[in-house]
Amino acid sequence: MEKVQILVATHKKYEMPKESYYLPIHVGREGKEDIGYIGDNTGNNISLKNPYYCELTAVYWAWKNLKADYIGLVHYRRQFKGKNKKVESLFDCILTNEEIDKLLEKNDIILPKKRKYYIENLYDHYKHTMYVEPLDITKKIIAEKYPEYLENFNKLHKRTSAHMFNMFIMKREYFNRYCEWLFDILGELEKRVDSSQYDSFHARFYGRVSELLLDVWIDTNKLAYVEIPVMSMEKVN
Fold first, then answer.
1. CA quadruple 102, 109, 47, 43: dihedral positive or negative?
2. Per-residue model confidence as pLDDT tens digits over 172-190
3. Which of 9, 82, 129, 215 is the most exposed place for a label (fewest CB within 10 A)?
């Protein structure tokens, strides 16, 4: 059993980190051709929800099936940046096992550096890119089921930065608690929102809502973390 397992969510064949802590996982694998990676449709899974849940199908899979002291998630096109600068390819720059071990000696949670939105707050940014109704319904669910989180949820109307991309490395204890909370909220959201009213882009709102919920959970529980820069493996438009 690896001490740390970091899922690399992908839907296609791609160059992958060589360090042993990284585990490529084919998200939305159910009904798709095998591309050589473990699928999120094995064991206890929600692979069929991938068109709506995005990379969260990998998070759920890890929660239910992985055995490790620390669990993480990155993306095939987006990785935590390490300190190595003598490189032959971008993949030599990714956070290494050794760097992760050193970070985890003093930290239980590793998060990406916050993404800053200079013009608008997090709520308005979401409202201008997605239909906002699912986010408003999420607030109602939190008010009903987890009222202690409502204060930090309401800060979405003021805050202009967040830990985005659903990227993290987390001590198992925290990871379990986060998943229990997150998937309970999203499960209730499924009951209250008809995803079929949206096109394929906007139907992925579960993944987008969850990006904003991570900090709500972290801040409410007053959890300490260390931030690491994020690097893109491809040119960003």
1. positive
2. 999 999 999 999 999 999 9
3. 129
